[in-house]
């Protein structure tokens, strides 16, 4: 072979490497050229994160630094892993392993099971509910499918955070968990579940990671083989890593530092599943020689959307660790985001539906429009409004309202009750009586995610009954059931392309030309359960940031002062909009400006009630031997006096009313309000 022929592959590789870099901006190029770890890429929303990490891998391969088969890239969803593989193939890089944590662990454990477990790969528990039900029964807990789902979620949280059954009660309390039963009872079910699983000789999905980590930690021959195979690691969405996944990553690395992590500290929204952003925030502390590259050029959204996102996250409490990100919009200018206040939720939904219809009629594809809300139960009023407007829609990340099991069960019971006859003018009490038989009660949502979702769906039916009675006071139960059937039929119409309805969590990783972020009132955004914990409130701010950064061109934010037509218009706009919405002043960072005691000036009945509440607070504080403000602040008493809540549910929606305070003082406050 001639010298020129021998040099040709080298020149071709160099040419491919240069082509890889030519497709990147300056910051992306700096990240791509940092092929030897440790490397931390802080990638803001819309800054080309996936493009950067795939080009980094391609550059490493084409320059000869990486052998493709020795690279393992892990992410969190099969869709994301598939996208990585597709982009790497397009860059002429084959052989790189791009998998989810679980898929990578399963592949390795299946190979090493005879050596580590003494036999073939055990069966996998596809669904925990059967074993959880057995463990709950042995613990003499009365459960239904909803509470079983919440127990399974608590077990998953415990396992991903490496908490044992003995650890669980203290760890759950420290994390502010709201388990469906007493923590000790959940711990007993957790222990029983583990015993039942071992008797069956099975593993669950958390075990896949734990046992794989154990195989590497406890079997030197396995560790040598795996670490010899994989020498370079890339971890996508690193802000979402939990302690169990980090343990497996540490086992893969075996003390080496050739790892590149990619994440956005402003999009850490999954602490309820066990995700720990401290791994990303503390990366530079763990690896003092790490290269840290920031990607801040936002190619997704207009400068106006980007500016709002920056102002929103700029009001967040500063966190220790890596430097913050400030996005720089790269698209042409467009209209400013809009802020709209509505008298009630149906009016808000109708306005959004009308706007969607107008956009579609003007040529906007329906699939390029999204309506984002905080909780799935909020979808009902938007499903109805869009159906009434003749606008097709698709619901992402959950079942349509009338297809949810609890709603189908409730409608069946309402239909049966209507067959027995009902009195005109008594619709709302009749609906409440029927729904009480399936676990609904007029109080704040119960603990546990699935139980809370079920309660919120049933509460939406009650709210709908209240709305309809306001329009037609003579409506009876049979008429209400007929109305539900009409809505269900309209919303079951097949849709090929439609407006996307999604929760803010389900929207992460997606984007649309037009985004409506709705229901922005305190108690919803931030959610009421977060109000007693500052760290949880900050996570709610980041969740709103995620929602805002989904918009490419048009962004609308809205809220309603009342829940139902004719209701008192007293719900406070989300605190996160202060300093963003026109006419509101920005909030100074807490570290720089101490909060001032609000000046309360109330007149008439509200003033009298405020004074009664202060007198009650004084007695409660004296009984508990705490300062008065520890019971409730003047601002919270003012909100109570102005809104005069008539139920625990209404009280729970006010600022400063956390779960613990509702439990301690809720009934006393309502008694004081009622006189």
TrEMBL record:
- Where would I find the UvrD-like helicase C-terminal domain in this sequence? 303-553
Which Gene3D superfamilies does this one have?
1.10.10.160, HRDC domain, P-loop containing nucleotide triphosphate hydrolases, PCRA, domain 4
Start and end residues of each HRDC domain: 603-675
EC number(s) given by UniProt:
5.6.2.4
Q: Which SUPFAM superfamilies match?
A: HRDC-like, P-loop containing nucleoside triphosphate hydrolases
Q: Which residues bind ATP?
A: 43-50
Report residue spans for region: Disordered.
566-597
Question: What is the name listed in the Swiss-Prot or TrEMBL entry for this protein?
Answer: DNA 3'-5' helicase
Native organism is Blastococcus deserti
């Amino acid at each position: 072979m001639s010298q020129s022929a021998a040099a040709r592959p080298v020149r071709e590789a160099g040419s491919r490497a240069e082509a890889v870099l030519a497709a990147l901006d300056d910051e992306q190029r700096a990240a791509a050229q940092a092929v030897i770890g440790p490397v931390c890429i802080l990638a803001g929303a819309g800054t080309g994160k996936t493009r950067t990490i795939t080009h980094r891998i391609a550059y490493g391969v084409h320059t000869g630094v990486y052998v493709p088969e020795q690279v393992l890239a892990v992410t969190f969803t099969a869709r994301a892993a598939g996208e990585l593989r597709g982009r790497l193939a397009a860059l002429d890089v084959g052989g790189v392993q791009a998998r989810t944590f679980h898929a990578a662990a399963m592949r390795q454990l299946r190979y090493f099971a005879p050596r580590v477990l003494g036999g073939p790969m055990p069966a996998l528990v596809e669904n925990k509910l059967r074993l959880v039900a057995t463990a709950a029964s042995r613990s003499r807990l009365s459960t239904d499918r909803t509470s079983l789902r919440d127990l399974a979620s608590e077990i998953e949280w415990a396992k991903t955070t490496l908490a044992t059954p003995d650890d669980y009660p203290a760890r759950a309390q420290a994390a502010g968990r709201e388990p469906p039963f007493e923590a000790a009872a959940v711990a007993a079910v957790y222990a029983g579940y583990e015993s039942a699983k071992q008797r069956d000789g099975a593993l669950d999905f958390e075990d896949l990671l734990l046992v794989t980590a154990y195989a590497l930690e406890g079997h030197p021959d396995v560790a040598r083989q795996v670490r010899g195979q994989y020498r370079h690691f890339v971890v996508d969405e690193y802000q979402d890593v939990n302690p169990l996944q980090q343990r497996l990553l540490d086992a893969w690395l075996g003390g080496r530092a050739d790892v590149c992590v990619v994440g956005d500290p402003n999009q850490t929204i999954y602490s309820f599943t066990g995700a720990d952003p401290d791994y990303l925030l503390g990366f530079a502390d763990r690896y003092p020689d790490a290269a840290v590259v920031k990607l801040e050029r936002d190619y997704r959204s207009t400068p106006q959307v980007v500016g709002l996102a920056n102002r929103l996250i700029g009001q967040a409490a500063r966190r220790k660790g890596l430097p913050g990100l400030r996005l720089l919009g790269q698209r042409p200018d467009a209209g400013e985001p809009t802020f709209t206040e509505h008298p009630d939720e149906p009016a808000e939904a109708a306005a959004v539906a009308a706007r969607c219809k107008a956009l579609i009629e003007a040529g906007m594809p329906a699939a390029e429009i999204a309506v984002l809300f905080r909780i799935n139960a909020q979808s009902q009023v938007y499903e109805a409004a869009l159906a009434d407007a003749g606008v097709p829609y698709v619901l992402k990340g959950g079942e349509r309202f009338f297809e949810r099991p609890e709603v189908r069960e409730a409608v069946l019971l309402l239909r049966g009750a209507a067959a027995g006859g009902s009195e005109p003018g008594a619709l709302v009490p009749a609906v409440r009586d029927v729904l009480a038989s399936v676990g609904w009660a007029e109080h704040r949502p119960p603990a546990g995610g699935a139980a809370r979702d079920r309660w919120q769906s049933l509460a939406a039916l009650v709210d709908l009954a209240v709305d309809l009675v306001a329009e037609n006071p003579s409506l009876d139960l049979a008429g209400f059931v007929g109305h539900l059937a009409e809505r269900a039929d309209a919303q079951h119409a097949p849709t090929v392309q439609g407006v996307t309805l999604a929760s803010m969590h389900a929207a992460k990783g997606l984007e649309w030309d037009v985004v409506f972020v709705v229901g922005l009132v305190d108690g919803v955004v931030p959610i009421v359960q977060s109000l007693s914990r500052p760290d949880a409130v900050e996570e709610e701010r980041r969740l709103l940031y995620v929602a805002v950064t989904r918009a490419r061109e048009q962004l609308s934010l809205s809220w309603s002062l009342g829940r139902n037509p004719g209701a008192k218009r007293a719900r406070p706009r989300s605190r996160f909009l202060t300093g963003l919405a026109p006419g509101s002043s920005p909030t100074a960072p807490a570290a720089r400006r101490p909060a001032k005691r609000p000046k309360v000036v109330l007149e008439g009945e509200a003033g009298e009630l405020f004074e009664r509440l202060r007198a009650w607070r004084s007695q409660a504080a004296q009984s508990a031997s705490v300062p008065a403000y520890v019971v409730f602040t003047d601002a919270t008493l003012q909100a109570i006096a102005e809104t005069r809540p008539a139920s625990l549910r209404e009280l729970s929606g006010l600022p400063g009313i956390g779960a613990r305070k509702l439990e301690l003082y809720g009934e006393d406050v309502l008694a004081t309000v009622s006189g």
